[in-house]
Amino acid sequence: MKSILVLCAFIAVTCANNVQLSKMQKEKVQQFTVECMKQSGVKPEVLAEAKKQNFKDDEALKKFMLCFFQKTGIMNRDGRLDIDVALSKLPQGADKVGVKKALEECRMKKGRDAADTAFEVFKCYHRATPTHVVF
Fold first, then answer.
1. Contact at 8 Å (CB) between 133 and 28?
2. Percentage helix, strand, coil for the chain under 3-state DSSP, each rounded to 5
3. Which residues partner with 69 through β-bridges?
4. Domain residues for 111?
5. Alpha carbons 134 and 25: distance in angstroms, whole number
6. What's the CATH number where 68 sits?
7. Number of domains, the chain
8. Which N-terminal stretch is annotated as signal sequence (predicted)?
9. What is the pLDDT of residues 54-81, one digit of tens each?
10. For residue range 13-42, what is the model confidence (pLDDT) as tens digits?
């Protein structure tokens, strides 16, 4: 349980660099994180490394990303990113113009399947913008 709480804190910090998530957004992040960890089998240490931009080529991490993106509604099961939904989920204080530009670039990333595409989009977005938020 402790590792799940640490992971939830990690996701909230990773996803809220320079912006403040609402209480409801934080609760959803925690809920989706727990659900997607169970579904994907990703290890907390793999997620912790992703926070540091050490993106391990880990199938469980890729499945976690797809699960999380699907639960937030920003990606469909085929790995297609919905920029409008992503922008609608940004917390106050986020640079919507910068985020939109990054998302438009990153949605062109394609992997060998939907989980791989989610991972490629995540890496691209993480590198393209300093504002890391939950969509």
1. no
2. 65, 5, 35
3. none
4. 2-128
5. 8
6. 1.10.238.20
7. 1
8. 1-16
9. 888 999 999 999 999 999 999 998 899 9
10. 444 444 677 788 888 888 999 999 999 999
